[in-house]
Amino acid sequence: MRALFVLLPLPADSERLLADLPQGLAAARARLVVRCYPPAEDERHLWSLVRAGRDPIATRRWRGLGASILLGAVLFTITAAILATAFDMLGGMLQIALPFGLFVGAFLGGFAAAMTGTESACDAVRALAKQVRRGDVLASFVAGDDLLLEIIARCAALGIASRRAD
Question: Could you give the residue ranges of the DSSP H alpha helices within the chain?
Fold first, then answer.
Protein backbone atom coordinates (compact mmCIF):
# COMPACT_ATOMS: atom_id res chain seq x y z
CA MET A 1 0.00 0.00 0.00
CA ARG A 2 1.19 3.47 -0.87
CA ALA A 3 0.02 6.92 0.14
CA LEU A 4 -0.83 10.01 -1.83
CA PHE A 5 -1.16 13.44 -0.25
CA VAL A 6 -3.36 16.00 -1.97
CA LEU A 7 -3.84 19.68 -1.14
CA LEU A 8 -7.53 20.32 -1.75
CA PRO A 9 -9.08 23.79 -1.97
CA LEU A 10 -12.28 22.42 -0.40
CA PRO A 11 -12.94 19.27 1.66
CA ALA A 12 -15.69 18.24 -0.75
CA ASP A 13 -13.15 17.95 -3.57
CA SER A 14 -12.03 14.56 -2.24
CA GLU A 15 -15.34 13.09 -3.39
CA ARG A 16 -14.97 14.81 -6.77
CA LEU A 17 -11.62 13.08 -7.25
CA LEU A 18 -13.20 9.69 -6.57
CA ALA A 19 -16.38 10.12 -8.61
CA ASP A 20 -16.93 7.95 -11.71
CA LEU A 21 -13.98 5.59 -11.32
CA PRO A 22 -13.38 3.11 -14.13
CA GLN A 23 -14.94 -0.32 -13.65
CA GLY A 24 -11.60 -2.02 -12.89
CA LEU A 25 -10.91 0.37 -10.02
CA ALA A 26 -14.24 -0.02 -8.24
CA ALA A 27 -12.93 -2.95 -6.19
CA ALA A 28 -9.81 -0.98 -5.28
CA ARG A 29 -12.00 1.84 -3.96
CA ALA A 30 -13.38 -0.51 -1.31
CA ARG A 31 -9.87 -0.74 0.19
CA LEU A 32 -9.22 3.01 -0.11
CA VAL A 33 -8.56 4.91 3.13
CA VAL A 34 -9.06 8.68 2.99
CA ARG A 35 -8.13 11.07 5.78
CA CYS A 36 -8.83 14.79 5.58
CA TYR A 37 -7.19 17.24 7.97
CA PRO A 38 -8.81 20.50 9.11
CA PRO A 39 -8.29 23.57 6.91
CA ALA A 40 -4.82 25.08 7.25
CA GLU A 41 -3.91 28.74 7.58
CA ASP A 42 -0.33 28.51 6.33
CA GLU A 43 2.65 26.16 6.00
CA ARG A 44 3.50 25.99 9.72
CA HIS A 45 -0.14 25.46 10.66
CA LEU A 46 -0.37 22.51 8.28
CA TRP A 47 2.75 20.98 9.85
CA SER A 48 1.23 21.37 13.30
CA LEU A 49 -2.04 19.75 12.17
CA VAL A 50 -0.17 16.75 10.78
CA ARG A 51 2.03 16.48 13.87
CA ALA A 52 -0.95 16.72 16.24
CA GLY A 53 -2.83 14.10 14.23
CA ARG A 54 -0.01 11.58 14.82
CA ASP A 55 -0.89 9.87 11.57
CA PRO A 56 1.77 7.18 11.02
CA ILE A 57 1.53 7.64 7.26
CA ALA A 58 2.04 11.40 7.26
CA THR A 59 4.67 11.61 9.99
CA ARG A 60 8.11 10.36 10.90
CA ARG A 61 8.80 9.73 14.54
CA TRP A 62 11.63 7.27 14.99
CA ARG A 63 14.41 9.69 14.10
CA GLY A 64 13.27 12.19 16.72
CA LEU A 65 12.77 9.46 19.31
CA GLY A 66 16.27 8.12 18.72
CA ALA A 67 17.74 11.60 18.94
CA SER A 68 15.94 12.25 22.23
CA ILE A 69 17.20 9.01 23.75
CA LEU A 70 20.76 9.67 22.58
CA LEU A 71 20.77 13.29 23.74
CA GLY A 72 19.33 12.33 27.15
CA ALA A 73 21.95 9.62 27.60
CA VAL A 74 24.85 11.92 26.67
CA LEU A 75 23.69 14.87 28.78
CA PHE A 76 22.90 12.82 31.85
CA THR A 77 26.17 10.89 31.60
CA ILE A 78 28.09 14.17 31.53
CA THR A 79 26.02 15.48 34.44
CA ALA A 80 26.58 12.32 36.49
CA ALA A 81 30.33 12.47 35.79
CA ILE A 82 30.51 16.09 36.94
CA LEU A 83 28.46 15.36 40.05
CA ALA A 84 30.59 12.31 40.88
CA THR A 85 33.89 14.11 40.54
CA ALA A 86 33.02 17.57 41.88
CA PHE A 87 30.43 16.76 44.53
CA ASP A 88 31.32 13.16 45.42
CA MET A 89 27.96 11.78 44.28
CA LEU A 90 27.85 7.95 44.41
CA GLY A 91 31.02 8.01 46.46
CA GLY A 92 32.92 9.74 43.68
CA MET A 93 33.13 6.48 41.75
CA LEU A 94 33.03 7.16 38.01
CA GLN A 95 32.66 3.44 37.23
CA ILE A 96 29.20 3.65 38.86
CA ALA A 97 28.26 7.20 37.86
CA LEU A 98 28.86 6.80 34.12
CA PRO A 99 26.61 3.74 33.53
CA PHE A 100 24.06 5.23 35.92
CA GLY A 101 24.02 8.47 33.93
CA LEU A 102 23.88 6.62 30.63
CA PHE A 103 20.91 4.40 31.49
CA VAL A 104 18.92 6.94 33.47
CA GLY A 105 19.50 9.60 30.80
CA ALA A 106 18.41 7.26 28.00
CA PHE A 107 15.27 6.39 29.95
CA LEU A 108 14.44 10.02 30.68
CA GLY A 109 15.11 11.05 27.08
CA GLY A 110 12.82 8.32 25.77
CA PHE A 111 10.16 9.11 28.35
CA ALA A 112 10.24 12.82 27.52
CA ALA A 113 9.99 12.02 23.79
CA ALA A 114 7.05 9.69 24.35
CA MET A 115 5.20 12.27 26.43
CA THR A 116 5.79 15.26 24.16
CA GLY A 117 5.80 13.51 20.79
CA THR A 118 8.61 13.55 18.26
CA GLU A 119 6.52 13.42 15.12
CA SER A 120 7.44 15.57 12.16
CA ALA A 121 5.80 15.79 8.75
CA CYS A 122 7.11 13.42 6.08
CA ASP A 123 8.87 14.75 2.98
CA ALA A 124 5.76 14.60 0.77
CA VAL A 125 3.74 16.68 3.25
CA ARG A 126 6.59 19.17 3.63
CA ALA A 127 6.72 19.62 -0.15
CA LEU A 128 2.96 20.22 -0.30
CA ALA A 129 3.04 22.59 2.67
CA LYS A 130 5.09 25.06 0.64
CA GLN A 131 2.10 25.43 -1.71
CA VAL A 132 -0.65 25.75 0.90
CA ARG A 133 -3.05 28.67 0.75
CA ARG A 134 -5.41 29.75 3.51
CA GLY A 135 -8.29 27.28 3.83
CA ASP A 136 -6.64 24.41 1.93
CA VAL A 137 -7.25 20.91 3.25
CA LEU A 138 -4.65 18.16 3.25
CA ALA A 139 -6.09 14.78 2.31
CA SER A 140 -4.26 11.48 2.36
CA PHE A 141 -5.28 8.56 0.17
CA VAL A 142 -3.94 5.11 1.01
CA ALA A 143 -4.60 2.48 -1.65
CA GLY A 144 -3.01 0.34 -4.31
CA ASP A 145 -0.86 1.80 -7.08
CA ASP A 146 -3.50 1.60 -9.80
CA LEU A 147 -6.03 3.70 -7.89
CA LEU A 148 -3.41 6.22 -6.78
CA LEU A 149 -2.25 6.70 -10.38
CA GLU A 150 -5.84 7.46 -11.38
CA ILE A 151 -6.16 10.00 -8.55
CA ILE A 152 -2.83 11.60 -9.57
CA ALA A 153 -4.10 11.93 -13.14
CA ARG A 154 -7.33 13.55 -11.93
CA CYS A 155 -5.39 15.95 -9.70
CA ALA A 156 -3.24 16.97 -12.67
CA ALA A 157 -6.34 17.53 -14.79
CA LEU A 158 -7.96 19.69 -12.09
CA GLY A 159 -4.76 21.59 -11.23
CA ILE A 160 -4.64 20.26 -7.68
CA ALA A 161 -1.25 19.79 -6.00
CA SER A 162 -0.39 16.21 -5.04
CA ARG A 163 2.65 14.30 -3.82
CA ARG A 164 3.17 10.58 -3.52
CA ALA A 165 4.85 9.15 -0.41
CA ASP A 166 6.76 5.92 -0.76
Answer: 13-18, 26-30, 43-53, 62-86, 94-116, 123-129, 145-158
